[in-house]
């Protein structure tokens, strides 16, 4: 195994470009999922470690306390327990509380979880309108939703979460659903956010389904305000499928996401009769 030690984010990008196949690494918990032997790097592995770079550390309020900046190399457990995150981004705290074992959260980093594309943090960050501070674009804040849609992610230095006026966090919910079996891996991660009593953001992620905003699902909800019961489930399932969730069989991810959204929005009861 070869380690290439950068002295800055820009140097890290240059080192990887000069060594085809080199990988960025901080905690390494996501990267190890790709190895046949999770305790040993494969032969010829070339890594660019990032955990020592100061630019990728820190949790602070910035820009007149209008945003929360979280360094990409911050350990997940540090993020989960930090007072600023708990006060301003409780949805992220809830998502990280359901992520793996304590040892994994101490080792894994927020940037690595985002880089995995379907880590538990990604739907939460999407509905919080998170922006990414990237090494290739210093001084800019790029929407995380757009970055996750790219074929290759850039080196993320930090995540920025815009804060609501007045400092009160929005009403949110996080669900992590799995099959009813002991130690069954999660099939779906779903995050929701409301504004003025109406669902305004929805995002999900699943194994092999990178995190994405559910724009068509929201559009269906807003255009069918009185639909309830089976009709709501059918409509939401079609909308979730249009958002890219698999829908090949009755218990697919589109169906699972539809049930979770319907449940949180109170749509599982009988249909409401429209008053003429």
List the helices and strands and how they pair.
Blueprint: E1 2-3, H1 9-18, E2 23-25, E3 46-49, E4 59-62, E5 67-71, H2 76-81, H3 83-88, H4 90-97, H5 102-107, H6 110-115, H7 121-127, E6 131-134, E7 142-143, H8 144-148, E8 156-162, E9 171-178, E10 186-195, E11 198-206, E12 209-213, H9 215-223, H10 229-242, H11 253-264
Parallel strand pairs: 1-3, 2-3
Antiparallel strand pairs: 4-5, 5-8, 6-7, 6-8, 9-10, 10-11, 11-12
Helix pairs in contact: 9-10, 10-11
Summarize the structure in words.
The protein is of the alpha+beta class. Among the domains are: 54-162, 2-Layer Sandwich (Uridine Diphospho-n-acetylenolpyruvylglucosamine Reductase, domain 3), CATH 3.30.465; 214-276, no CATH class. Helices cover 32% and strands 23% of the residues. It has eleven helices and twelve strands. The protein has helices at 9-18, 76-81, 83-88, 90-97, 102-107, 110-115, 121-127, 144-148, 215-223, 229-242, 253-264; strands at 2-3, 23-25, 46-49, 59-62, 67-71, 131-134, 142-143, 156-162, 171-178, 186-195, 198-206, 209-213. Strands 4-5-8-6-7 form a five-stranded antiparallel beta sheet. A four-stranded antiparallel beta sheet has the order 9-10-11-12, sandwiched between helices. A hairpin with a 2-residue loop joins β10 (186-195) and β11 (198-206). α9 packs antiparallel against α10. The longest helix has 14 residues, at 229-242. The protein is globular and about 60 Å long.
